[in-house]
Description:
Helix content: 55-70%
Largest sheet: 4 strands, antiparallel
Shape: flat
Strand content: 5-15%
Strand order of the largest sheet: 4-5-1-6
Radius of gyration: 28 Å
Order of helices and strands: HEEEHEEHHHEHHHHHH
Structural class: alpha+beta
Amino acid sequence: MNPTNISNQTLLDGICRRGVLVSTSVRYWRGCKRLNPEDLGLDPAHVSDRLIQLGHKRLIPRDALQAFALIESRVQATVESSSFPFLGGIGRFVPNPRLGDLTDRLEKLRDEFREATLDFVAGYTPLRENALIEWREAARHMNGSAERLIATIEQSFPPAGDIAKRFGFETRLFQIAAPDSIRLEIADGMAQLEVADDRRRIAEDASRRLQADLDGFIRESVASMREETAKLASEVLATINGSENGVHQRTLNRLTTFIDSFRSLNFAGDQQLEQTLERFRRDLLSRTAEDYRNQPGAMTSLTDGLTRLRENAVQLARTDAREVISRFGQMGTRKLAAVG
């Protein structure tokens, strides 16, 4: 095994041991139909795209599907708050400490989705009939194209017996892995050598790309948490400076919650930022908001501390994460050494 493959394996092993990939899918009938010129009785050859754009039109009122849109956005926000985008978005990487809480929250959203689906399916037939009444009323003002339009709209509604199939909520967890080698197919003579050479070249190229991808993923994850820290410190400072009553307890609670969240998301082992946040917690979050409001000197210490935290996080975000990546791979290196 060459040095590049060892490096790949150590990074990959570290990622495999510290989290999983999650993929979620919220699927529901969107209640839309893309209208074409023919649907309105128009000749496509005489319809200019520069002047007329038909596009997607709603078959039913927007609020009929609002519950599903809300659940979909909550699912996305829930997953994003507990994970990092992995290798161009093929999935979301969830650190082990966040996995239990994430699956519990997704299960509750799945229950909400199931209830909303049952309610929608139960009321689908009258909803469809009322929508068609509204479409017929609107079509009265469309001259000779009304009948064709209504026929198109009616055909666009799924049958009542099939509507439930248009809804689904899935969560899939994946363990990250890579093949140890690329197996050769049976071949004869020179053809076998050519296949072996091609596959060896492909494997080496894939190994180089995997190394770059894993390296980039860890760097981006570390940088994003550092940037989030700087952003939070700036927002809290702005909140304090804009308040006539000093700091509120919910503001301090927000800082504490962020630090707790960082510890569970810090799969890469960013010790510099973790130590900085823990020091901030120890020195400045042991007081209550009332203590800060009653002690002007303490408020100065808090704002100075937030300023230092922001500057530190900004500086870290601009530095290379090479040291973090080096430590990250040590777990895999120790494992390989023990096996060898």
